[in-house]
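## Example record

The block below lists the input lines for one assembly entry, exactly as stored, with component labels intact.
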Amino acid sequence: MEVPPLLKANELVVSRGNKRILDRATMHLPAGSLTVLLGPNGAGKSTLIDVLSGWLAADAGEVVLDRCPVGSIPARERAARCAVMRQDTARPTGLNVRQSVELGRLAAGGSSEEIDQCADEMLRRMDLEPLASRDCANLSGGEWQRACFARTAAQVWNCPHPAVVLLDEPVSNLDPPHQHSLLFEARALAGEGHAVLAILHDLHLAAHHADRIILLQNGCVIREGPVKTTLHPALLTRIYGCRVEELADEVRGLRTLASFPPAR
Amino acid sequence: MSRHRLLALGVAVPLVLVVGAMLGAVAIAPSQWLSVIGNPGSGSMEASVFWGIRLPRVVLAALVGAALALAGAGIQGLFRNPLADPGLIGVSAGASVGAVLCHVLAWQDLWGGWMLPGMAFLGGLGAVGLLRLFQTGFESGGAARLILSGIALNAMLGSVLGFALFSASDSALRSITFWTLGSCGGADWPRNAVLLGFFAVGSFLIFRNGRSLDALQLGEAQAAHLGVSTSRVRGEVILGTALLVGSATAFAGMIGFIGLVAPHISRLLLGGLHRHLLPGAVFTGAILMVLADLGARTLVAPAELAVGILTAAAGGPFFLWLLKRPGARALF
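Predicted structure tokens for the full assembly:
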């Protein structure tokens, strides 16, 4: 049975100068699954997230979030339905990790007990408890990235309706165990009924954690669908221009993907 | 802990006000303080100095300091830039040009005295508006751009002031000199009431955006994703800043450093959350300004220094010391 999409984008076009960053990109995000967005640098992945979240208006095409055009939803209400973790989030001066996570509750509000409970839970889930009172400026890159994810997850915490969660390269600074644990948490959000989209570059992580894949190249959606029908080594080799092969993960009996430098 | 420190700062303000009003060229002996405060209408020389001359003056100083500090805190939060300050980016100069124009045109007594702060406010607003034209956004990378446009704006407004100076009459000339150096002299209750009116509206506009300013520290886009309508916040904080700086500059002239330093002191003491930082800046600014004004009227008594000289002379070294502290590393 097909789940109706929570977020739908139709024929999105974004141009800068003569370059089309998004070129009639069409995709959707169903509630309850983790979709991984893959594509080479400059394919338009971050721009797609900017348009999906309503931060950037597309030159053509439309984004519909839960039957409303995303641009028409007031900022506060939009924040309750769509949480975004950006790549370029600045570290707030003079705020500690816990205070930065609590900013995720800005739109939802609630009593201070509720906010405390939410922050406690997110700090615990992201392995940030020992850092809770550390100033954000004194975190390593990976620790700050986990704090940003915790804030984004806090935004949809106890959300009464399915929300969209957009993650722009959420694991780019993380060590392997934290990469997996963050993506497990992203999947848990999908398990709670949200529609989660994550930009990744690691094909192995994508193969292990994604429910669905969207392949983006030169602003076009090349392929969209379940992992099985999208992650073909030959297709990925063509898109990335570097050799991608399927490997067997012998311990768990799974297949995974790895990239190799071009043969000389 | 932040809450306790904020409370301590708040308690310190009335104490500094009273002590500031007791000290001066005519010192009131500590043994008389209680009777002076208890009997405003006693007719004694001390009581009339305290209630009629000094108290309006320290209240003016406190309001001016609070307004400049709050404007500085608001603008630093909005531009996400620790260097932003109403003086550095030209808002004070804009307000000053408005006030000087008002004097050159001899309009200062129009509309029951509201014309002067009104024009200073418009001057400040115009300066922020110009600045906004040259800022593509309030995003990262805007720091150098902001400071450079502020320098250019300050220079331009300085030449406007110079032109006014050149073409002004003698009496206008005196008032222009007054604006550029700053002074809390000539305070009275009607002026304080006007200033309080501007302060109430301006601080309301900034305080109500405190939580949004917290979120803006993550960057404008990220704040928008959290539910902040960034253009509304920007408009309100800029309007509030212009109201605060305009009215403060109209009544006390151009006073530097309070708007830059007071928010940083508040941030170091109370942390970066604006619900602590903003009231902390108000209290810190009021205290600093009352002390600076106390120095201005006592250091070379019976003559008087321009208060702007003191805030810069005392504020500069203090700020350098703040920057060297280990605790400052996380902030700058």
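The CA atoms of residues 98 and 120 of chain B lie 4 Å apart. Chain B has 14 helices and no strands.
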